[in-house]
Amino acid sequence: MNNNQTINFLEQAANQIATRVNQANTIDILLGSNDFDTIAAGLGFSASLIDAKKTVNIFAPQDFMAQNYEGILNLDQIKSDIGQENMIIQLNYPLDKIEKISSSEKDDRLRLIVKLKDGAQSIKTDQVEVITQREKANLGFVFSSTDNFNLPENFMEGTEWVSFKKDQLNDSAWISLPVHGLTISYSDLIARIVSTVGLPMNSIVGTNLYRGIYQATNAFRDISDYRTLEVAALCFRSLQQNGIEKNLSEEVEDQEVLTQQHPENIENKEMGTSISGFPAPRIFKGSTTPKI
């Protein structure tokens, strides 16, 4: 993709994602790879969605090792068990007719007790449904691939999926984002989507996405799009606004890179030439979140 195609693609993708996120209450995120950028992007995106009052579950493969990701926040929120062994008992019965639900044990067995309100009709046997898998999410995001997951049967069905991966997800995917055609990292991609959609950019989101971009670009030495500097500055700004104490040995060096690098020195990876004519990276000082 050239620069204009990348911009148009991200705008179209962000518009579709915004619509689905607004409609969803529960969201699943599958991190199909354990590399630093994928983990940082997934957790940054998750923190933004949670701040937007969404219920979010985030999963990584079984061999996920938290100690390999120094500086990334909320690692303890990543799960490897996607709930295929869970059991849900669902009552297809009006909630306004139920007084309370409790549980007890009798003869080493669990009993669920449903107390109905006065005058309510009794619950029929065919109104009790046993689901041997956790409840489906309204919306799901896949980073990289699902190949490393032991997904339960029919897990992907009944959920709308967005695929940030290099091949097609399956027929149930309503949008597939060809990351292989972009010369940016997952963290960079998510930072741009968060900004464009208008999702929250709090200190946790900013920390994770900033560190993901930092690592993926070799401390901003390997970038192909000047907007990477803009979104990195936006992420960094969220840390300053929230009074986060920073590691000066690393962050001062980062700021030198952000402020000294100029667009004409950014290599165009696709064309093999240097980009000229772009405006200097913008450092945002106000409280308004700009659109990238």
Give the rounded overall mean pLDDT. Answer: 75
- Domain module tally: 2
Q: What topology, given as strand order, has the largest sheet?
A: 3-2-1-8-9-10
Radius of gyration: 23 Å
General shape: elongated
CATH class of the largest domain: Alpha Beta
Helix content bin: 25-40%
Report the CATH superfamily of the largest domain: inorganic pyrophosphatase (n-terminal core)
Task: Classify the secondary structure makeup into a structural class.
Answer: alpha/beta
Unreliable spans are 166-174, 247-252, 259-292
CATH architecture of the largest domain: Alpha-Beta Complex
Q: How would you characterize the largest beta sheet?
A: 6 strands, parallel
How is the quaternary structure best described?
Answer: single chain
How many angstroms separate the termini? Answer: 18 Å
Q: Write the element-wise H/E pattern from the N-terminal end onward.
A: HEHEEEEEEEEEHHHH
Strands, total number: 10
Task: Please give a structural write-up.
With 292 residues, this protein is of the alpha/beta class. The protein folds into 2 domains: 210 residues, inorganic pyrophosphatase (n-terminal core), CATH 3.90.1640.10; 44 residues, no CATH class. The protein contains 6 helices and 10 strands; from the N terminus they run H-E-H-E-E-E-E-E-E-E-E-E-H-H-H-H. Strand 5 and strand 6 form a beta hairpin. It is elongated. It starts with a helix and ends in a 32-residue tail after the last helix. The C terminus is likely disordered.
List the helices and strands and how they pair.
Elements: H1 3-23, E1 26-31, H2 36-51, E2 55-59, E3 78-79, E4 88-91, E5 98-106, E6 109-116, E7 128-131, E8 139-144, E9 160-165, E10 173-178, H3 186-197, H4 203-216, H5 227-241, H6 248-260
Helix pairs in contact: 1-3, 2-3, 2-4, 3-4, 3-5, 4-5
